[in-house]
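Action item from last week, closing it out:
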Amino acid sequence: MLFLLRRPRRVAAVALVALTALLTTVPATSAEEKPTGTAVVDGPVSGKLVPALRGKAASEAAGAYVSDRYRELATSRGERQSQTIQPWTDALHNGWGVFPTVVSDGAQATHSVNPQIHISPTNPDIIYAPTLTPSGKTCIEVTTFYWQGGNGVGAWDWCAANPGFAAVAWIDSSFLNTYTVPFHGLRAYTVRDVQTDPVTNSWTAYLYNYTTGAWDELFTSADPAKLTQTHGGWSMFEVYTYYNSGTGEGYYCTETYGSMWWTTDYQLKIGNSWQSVTPANSNTSSGMSSTDLGCYSLSFSINTANSNWQVTH
């Protein structure tokens, strides 16, 4: 693990990152492959925990390096301007995705996982994709991260006095066999991040257990102070990348050729009902090319507006 000093800070991030869609075509998926639907939304809560590292163990597993980069990502969401692929110093942060414009009481989506991605020990980059936050008042952001220390699904606790990773489930064979199914050429897991108490503003992030047909708890957190934050959330592809002078682009580009990241069946809980994310309740953005994420060959698509997005390399 790398070891930058942590800087405790509460962050209220309004995410409107400059983005553009380089439209591609997504192959049709059969109904048998489709991993989500009404049955998943209405599935029971199991009362069981997702096997994961929690608390101090989760923070140490993710490493101070990943935690610091993630904290800085949130701080800079909406602050960075589009950049060209000229050589850059320090780290380039940018992202692309979908941004709800309503305050929801929860979000659900199916996320790709790609265990074939291997970030080498000499690669300083981190990929957070997909990363999901329901709305400004949420306590938990659930992200799939890829870095030199390994690949995992993490719950980031924004309601802690010192925000950080509070639960980390490594993407290993047990995780893949329990929480993912084949879909669209990759494995996919389904996450539900919902407010469970409107008074205390308690939130719980669940992962759907495909072997039992129920929701297992990843993490719970609460903070009524966040009820005043009325902006929407996000679902996006996000990177923290350093310039590789040998290739003329970010380090992660070389090691992710042929990779794909996507979110599908992105839904919001509005009151007591689940609604698909659409252009009526969310925005995508314009004004960015793949080089603004430090890569020459990324392509972006909104395949079902706006509940299904994809990034292909």
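Closing note: The two ends are 27 Å apart (CA to CA).
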